[in-house]
């Protein structure tokens, strides 16, 4: 099951639960079973899934929930937190500091994408002003040095390696020393892989680590290896001080569950994911954003970060933010949003991260712009009461006819605009209760 399918199955299970009139033990069990099935099909390790199910049942005690509590929200929240917990080992990995030399050693099986990922990691940091360098200590695979050299040259990153020397430890030490002298602040050591886990590989890894004393060991894992992920990650963890995980090939038909298993096995966070063969197909990994997307809740942490970024740019900031946190969405807000969309203003960046945003008019193509302008003309013919009310019932048939006439549009078009409004209001209502905007630690629910 590819990641998108996993997300789809989980959100469908939650949706089905939301559709139930009463949420009782049976409905909760059905929902959890559905989610369990989806996670297992995505190759999350059985024990992890079972623990998650037990934990949720412990947290959500339906009988204890006082009447009036929003059970759905509590259940959804519990699922969100449990999934985050699975992906969050509880301690951050070592983070290299710009300007201070750090050695980062990459380990993983052959074909996992290790060499590609080393370059991506170097390139990512180079773009942010670091001075990275690459050392090829893979003397096992013929062509490994050529590959690294080619990638490094393309990205204009200094590299070190040898066609003659067969001792990976010697190359690694020389490379690290050379780049320390050159004041590189991120020295990346690519080590050998093997087709399978074997003693020789782990021994070599241990020796390279002992000689170069890396600040961080990154385990690179191919996301498509399925249920094997847990054991493979554990084997690497036992032989090297793995401190972080990078999951590659998330763009393919990957079973995303492997990432969850690798975190559990190594007790180390996923720090990046590879999403393609190209150098810049590489993304930082954020647990909350990942799980939010899985649950079809939009990218909440990205959204909250964005709020902080754009808030200073919003003129009508206090009222709008107040309304955001109340989940209130009036036609006037929609009008203001449309104005923003037309200017590609800050709000359009925000709304693009919300759940259901893919259905929003985008404002950047001709057709959408025409539609937005048409809607705005109709709204120009509305009264203040209509624009500021959250009660759609006040928009009666006679009012629709009046708005159509006033704006020179068809009744059908006005009705279509109201449908759009109702849909957006529903999306907006999910923001009820969000706290705005202290950096970090913002709960989406
Ligand atoms: P190594 O043996 O572990 O060093 O693996 P390589 O870096 O040589 O990668 C093996 C193959 O996987 C190459 O064809 C890479 O282009 C490809 N690859 C690496 N990362 C990704 C990724 O994130 N997405 C995709 N689609 N391919 C990748």
UniProtKB/TrEMBL annotation:
GO BP terms, alphabetized: SRP-dependent cotranslational protein targeting to membrane, translocation
One of the entry's Gene Ontology molecular-function terms is: GTP binding
Alphabetized InterPro entries for the sequence: AAA+_ATPase, P-loop_NTPase, Signal_recog_part_SRP54_M_sf, Signal_recog_particl_SRP54_hlx, Signal_recog_particle_SRP54_M, SRP/SRP_N, SRP54, SRP54_euk
- Give the keywords, sorted: Cytoplasm, Endoplasmic reticulum, GTP-binding, Hydrolase, Nucleotide-binding, Ribonucleoprotein, RNA-binding, Signal recognition particle
State the PROSITE patterns in the record.
SRP54
| Positions of the SRP54-type proteins GTP-binding domain | 269-282
Reactions catalysed, semicolon-separated, are: GTP + H2O = GDP + phosphate + H(+)
Where is this protein found? Answer: Cytoplasm; Endoplasmic reticulum
| One Gene Ontology cellular component annotation held by this UniProt entry | endoplasmic reticulum
Read off the Pfam families from this record. Answer: SRP54 (PF00448), SRP54_N (PF02881), SRP_SPB (PF02978)
Tell me, in one coarse class, where this protein mainly resides: cytoplasm
Q: Which Gene3D superfamilies match?
A: P-loop containing nucleotide triphosphate hydrolases, Signal recognition particle SRP54, nucleotide-binding domain, Signal recognition particle, SRP54 subunit, M-domain
The record, for SMART domains, names: AAA, SRP54, SRP54_N
**Domain comment (free text):** The NG domain, also named G domain, is a special guanosine triphosphatase (GTPase) domain, which binds GTP and forms a guanosine 5'-triphosphate (GTP)-dependent complex with a homologous NG domain in the SRP receptor subunit SRPRA. The two NG domains undergo cooperative rearrangements upon their assembly, which culminate in the reciprocal activation of the GTPase activity of one another. SRP receptor compaction upon binding with cargo-loaded SRP and GTPase rearrangement drive SRP-mediated cotranslational protein translocation into the ER.
Cite the HAMAP family for this sequence. Answer: SRP54
Function field: Component of the signal recognition particle (SRP) complex, a ribonucleoprotein complex that mediates the cotranslational targeting of secretory and membrane proteins to the endoplasmic reticulum (ER). As part of the SRP complex, associates with the SRP receptor (SR) component SRPRA to target secretory proteins to the endoplasmic reticulum membrane. Binds to the signal sequence of presecretory proteins when they emerge from the ribosomes. Displays basal GTPase activity, and stimulates reciprocal GTPase activation of the SR subunit SRPRA.
Q: Which family does it belong to?
A: Belongs to the GTP-binding SRP family. SRP54 subfamily.
Q: How does it assemble?
A: Component of a signal recognition particle (SRP) complex that consists of a 7SL RNA molecule of 300 nucleotides and six protein subunits: SRP72, SRP68, SRP54, SRP19, SRP14 and SRP9.
Designated name of the protein: Signal recognition particle 54 kDa protein
């Amino acid at each position: 099951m590819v990641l998108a399918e996993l997300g789809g199955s989980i959100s469908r299970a939650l949706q089905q639960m939301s559709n139930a009139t009463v949420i009782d033990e049976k409905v909760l069990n059905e929902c959890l079973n559905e989610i369990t099935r989806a996670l297992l099909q995505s190759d999350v390790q059985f024990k992890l899934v079972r623990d998650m199910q037990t934990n949720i049942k412990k947290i959500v005690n339906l009988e204890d929930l006082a009447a009036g509590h929003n059970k759905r929200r509590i259940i959804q929240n519990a699922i969100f937190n449990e999934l985050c917990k699975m992906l969050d080992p509880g301690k951050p990995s070592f983070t290299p500091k710009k300007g201070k030399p750090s050695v980062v050693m990459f380990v993983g099986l052959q074909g996992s994408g290790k060499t590609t990922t080393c370059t991506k990691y170097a390139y990512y940091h180079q773009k942010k002003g670091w001075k990275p360098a690459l050392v090829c200590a893979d003397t096992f695979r013929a062509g490994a040095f050529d590959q690294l050299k080619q990638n490094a040259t393309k990205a204009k990153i200094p590299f070190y390696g040898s066609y003659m020397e067969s001792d990976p430890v010697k190359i690694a030490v020389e490379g690290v020393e050379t780049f320390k002298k050159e004041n590189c602040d991120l020295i990346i050591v690519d080590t050998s892989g093997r087709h399978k886990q074997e003693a020789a590989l782990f021994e070599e890894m241990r020796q390279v680590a002992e000689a170069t004393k890396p600040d961080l060991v990154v385990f690179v894992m191919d996301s498509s290896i399925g249920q094997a992920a847990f054991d493979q990650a554990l084997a690497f963890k036992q032989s090297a001080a793995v401190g972080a995980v990078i999951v590659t090939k998330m763009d393919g038909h990957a079973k995303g569950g492997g990432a969850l298993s690798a975190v559990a096995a190594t007790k180390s966070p996923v720090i990046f994911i590879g999403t393609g063969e190209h150098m810049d197909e590489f993304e930082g990994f954020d647990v909350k954003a990942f799980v939010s997307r899985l649950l079809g809740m939009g990218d909440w942490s990205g959204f909250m970060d964005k709020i902080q970024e754009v808030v200073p740019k919003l003129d009508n900031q206090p009222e709008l933010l107040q309304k955001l946190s109340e989940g209130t969405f009036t036609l006037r807000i929609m009008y203001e949003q449309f104005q923003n969309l037309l200017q590609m203003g800050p709000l359009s960046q925000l709304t693009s991260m919300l759940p259901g945003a893919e259905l929003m008019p985008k404002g950047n193509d001709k057709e959408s712009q025409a539609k937005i302008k048409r809607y705005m003309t109709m709204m120009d013919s509305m009264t203040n009461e209509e624009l500021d009310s959250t009660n759609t019932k006040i928009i009666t048939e006679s009012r629709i006819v009046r708005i159509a006439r006033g704006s020179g549009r068809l009744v059908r078009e006005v009705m279509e605009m109201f449908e759009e409004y109702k849909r957006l209001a529903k999306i907006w209502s999910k923001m009820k209760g969000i706290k705005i905007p202290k950096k970090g630690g913002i709960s989406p629910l």
